[in-house]
């Protein structure tokens, strides 16, 4: 497996979890709250991915968009979260 493929898979997993966080926040569902559901946990995982040497610009852009999404969640603005994820996946 090429190292960038692992990074792409990790970002896809993180994206799915951020969308789950967004859903939980919109539903005000605190019952499912665990440390893994903390935006800070996912921010650390994204920053770990960003530290990968030779990270292609497309994956760096996606990581940055996911960080923007976490910022949007902090501000309780889910629409910006979805827009950030969508724009990062657009070909350049």
Characterization of the model:
- The protein is built from four helices and no strands.
- It has one domain (3-88).
- It has helices at 3-27, 39-50, 57-74, 78-88.
- 21% of the residues are buried.
- 72% of the residues lie in helices and 0% in strands.
- The chain is elongated.
- Helix 1 (3-27) runs parallel beside helix 3 and helix 1 (3-27) packs antiparallel against helix 4.
- The two termini are 25 Å apart.
- By secondary structure, the protein is mainly α.
Features:
92 residues, mainly alpha, 72% helix, 0% strand, elongated
How would you summarize the topology of this molecule?
Layout: H1 3-27, H2 39-50, H3 57-74, H4 78-88
Helix pairs in contact: 1-2, 1-3, 1-4, 2-3, 3-4
What is the strand tally? 0
Number of domains: 1
Q: What is the string of SSEs from the N terminus onward?
A: HHHH
In helices, the fraction of residues equals over 70%
Taking the alpha carbons of the first and last residues, their distance comes to: 25 Å
Form type: elongated
Give the count of helical stretches. Answer: 4
Q: Rg from C-alpha positions? A: 13 Å
Sequence stretches where pLDDT stays below 50 over 5 or more residues: none
Q: What structural class is derived from the secondary structure elements? A: mainly alpha
The percent range for strand residues is under 5%
Q: What do the pLDDT scores average to?
A: 81
What does the main sheet amount to? Answer: none
């Amino acid at each position: 497996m090429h190292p960038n493929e692992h990074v792409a898979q990790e970002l896809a997993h993180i994206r799915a979890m951020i969308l789950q966080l967004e859903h939980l926040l919109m539903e005000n569902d605190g019952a499912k709250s665990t440390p893994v559901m903390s935006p800070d946990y996912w921010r650390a995982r994204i920053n770990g991915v960003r530290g990968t040497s030779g990270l292609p610009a497309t994956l760096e852009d996606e990581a940055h968009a996911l960080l923007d999404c976490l910022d949007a969640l902090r501000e309780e603005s889910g629409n910006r979260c979805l827009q950030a994820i969508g724009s990062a996946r657009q070909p350049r």
